[in-house]
């Protein structure tokens, strides 16, 4: 029977993936409280629809930095797509082209950014971990620019690597033979040249963000900003956008769900820059709730990998179609023509204490 929900796709993907690989994609840090919170928090938010508004057929089109996309759902950066399918990130890029949305290519991709760009539709951003070696970082930024990426998504929540206990138990420490993080090659990424490891550093600071701002004209979004004071600092450093993210629960466990963190960041920037959200999106209703709380768009990560594992590019495209259909239906049922009509008046919030008692 054809899968009807992302949850059903997850179950099918996990049946197909090697157990250690399935754990790598599904797992998080510590007790994985944040992993589960990202999803469960949406159940505490209700939708209060409007009726008889003559909204007509929903139009999901959204514009980010002058680039129109078909819906406010992007593909979040996730590493190692070739673990899920032999075509890896190139398959994901083809699905992004089919869905007419933006792919945020991960720095830890198993396909070089040049190949990913060639497979896609030009709607491509690149996720960057700031590296202590500025010479290498600048050379990578130049590769990204030459490949046609239009934005850098700088991940700022990783001064150290999160403790992911599933991977430790499984001994999952290296990619299989012949598979590499292709964007981490020296000498401009030429095949056969050495591959680096991503360097995490507690010494990185806002000065590093200012430095990246100084070396490129690409739009810069900071991914992992969850405190209002940091949101305001990001604007001062020249950030063009923010992504509210807790790294899918893979870095600091016990962080709140991103949907709970979103309103304070939206309020802190006051519309000065787009605010995006990732983490826990599993339904079209989740997307609509995030948009109603002020997100310009959302990004999905794990569901993309599930689709990839099941049927490559077509599997990813199916995930995006499924979510698009759910968002369209939810908007229609809320009495809205466009995501721009959503606001907090469409939401009702369940008290956390009551939710805990029920579960």
From TrEMBL:
Co-factor(s): FMN
Entry keyword annotation includes Glycoprotein: no
Segments passing through the bilayer: none
PROSITE patterns listed in its UniProt record: FMN_HYDROXY_ACID_DH_1, FMN_HYDROXY_ACID_DH_2
Annotated keywords: Oxidoreductase
Recorded family membership: Belongs to the FMN-dependent alpha-hydroxy acid dehydrogenase family.
Record protein name field: Alpha-hydroxy-acid oxidizing protein
